[in-house]
Amino acid sequence: MKKIIIIAISSLLTVYNSLGQTRKMEEKFFPDATIDIPTPAFQKAEWKGFTKYKEMVRFVHQIAEGKEYVKIDGIGESQRGKEIIRVHINKPSSSEKIKVWLQGGLHGNEPASSEGVMFILYSLLKDPQYEYLLDKLDITVLPMANADGYNNMIRVSANGLDLNRDFIKLAAPETNHIRTAFSEFGPQVAIDFHEYNPYRAHFNHFGEKGITTYYDAFFLYSNNLNVNSTIREVTKDLLVKNAKEALIANDRNVSDYSSTKMKNGHIHFNQGGSSPRSTSTNYALSNCLSVLMEIRGVNLKRISFKRRVETTYLAGMSYLKTAYENGDQIRAAIAKADKSTISQEEEAVIKQDKKVIKTKYTCIDLATESKKEIEVVMTDGLQMKASKTRVRPYAYILMPTETVAVEKLKTLGVEVIQLNQQKTIDVEAYQVKSTHVSVAVWEKIYLRKTKAKTVKESKVIPKGSFIVYMDQSTSNVVVSALEPENDNSFFTFRVIDGDFKEGSELPVYRYIKKQKI
């Protein structure tokens, strides 16, 4: 036992030393919560780590025992054979319900996400004061989305893929299972809980000893211009606004999400998010109000862990209360977005640029352990502007060879039909202007960058070709996937691949005429 205690203390000191911070600083800015949290990680000694997969499975079955309206099953297996657990709570009620999707643990080294989601589950099923929420909410929860990674406290899945970079190319079994379950459930509200690293490498370049983040929680909601404008507005002005207020009322510091990157020898801050390969935008492209929560926590081990879990919990309960209290507004917003998408009112955005601004960034100076503001250059994803658009086609046509792409579109919730006879029709073809394959591997792929122009032609479309009509509410994701210049398209990720030389045609066509083929 003595040896174990020494190891635990040494481990904690190593964490503090490696971060270049003191416990005094943590207690000053991020004092730990004093509440009791009933989840497995808090029922054992700290040195035993966080909740293991088997403990999570046992916990969700225990709290659901005797409740017939709770169904626990698996949506598919992880790469190492673990069932990805889904908890579906749908209590009988005469009220019209909002469907809510909650997930945690997509990155395996972000323990407050799963622990917070389990705390929410416990409150919904065991705390009578929250039972009323079930009258108007139909809730699906994935407590540990990346079970393999979580069990070993690593970010990625068993084959090394970052699952939150995989929601367009769908190369990992886990993301296929998750996106299939998401599409089948069809939620109106979706929250994906994460933690972020408060000690980014670029922060060492500021001040005498570097800086760290000031914020307990970042809010990441999509500003991708292919996400319907009503979805973007209501997500920000209703869900995010209420959750920010709830956290501030509980003495949490909050902000919109930001990160850093090195560009031409200068450190640029980047605010917001717009990538369809990640959940917040990917889910929003299905006309769902979607937010990704980032809690200050990666690499902090058990430092301020109760605070981190409580922050996750407070945000999650705020989203549930907002959905409960604003069902009519949420339904109206999604109906408006669906109508707009189906009638193809908005353009297909091919390229979008972020405004670059100079602004103040609030942080903690590690030398003085005090709050300070620094002047930074910010690429502001909250101020997006379309730099290249095309008319949204009535349909995209894929050649019969593109079966892999078609299966991924179906997983993304898109209906695809197959042409049962050859037809000659007027289309827009993509003619390659240039193509370039990266020299470095990203997520196990050499990415392709493609520039193309569209040319009108009469085309013989062979029997067995695939038709994706855009008059469906889930079709916004199709623009991201099939317009070749998009940074997250099937062409970029080599889902659709070939010897694409200058002047050649791509195996996807745009059909403009508003008439079924």
Automatic annotation (TrEMBL):
Question: What broad class describes the main subcellular location of this protein?
Answer: secreted
Domain of life from the UniProt record: Bacteria
Question: Which Pfam families does the record match to this protein?
Answer: Peptidase_M14 (PF00246)
Q: What is the lineage of its organism?
A: Bacteria, Pseudomonadati, Bacteroidota, Cytophagia, Cytophagales
Instruction: Name the catalytic site residues.
Output: 294 (proton donor/acceptor)
Pinpoint the Peptidase M14 domain residues.
Answer: 49-323
Q: Does the keyword Signal apply?
A: yes
UniProt keywords, alphabetically = Glycoprotein, Hydrolase, Protease, Secreted, Signal, Virulence
Q: Which co-factor is required?
A: Zn(2+)
Location in or out of the cell: Secreted
The identity of this protein, by name, is Succinylglutamate desuccinylase/aspartoacylase family protein
Keyword Signal attributed: yes
Extract the GO molecular function terms from the UniProt entry: metallocarboxypeptidase activity; zinc ion binding
Which family is annotated?
Answer: Belongs to the peptidase M14 family.
- SUPFAM superfamilies, A to Z: Zn-dependent exopeptidases
Gene Ontology BP annotations: proteolysis
GO CC terms of this entry? extracellular space
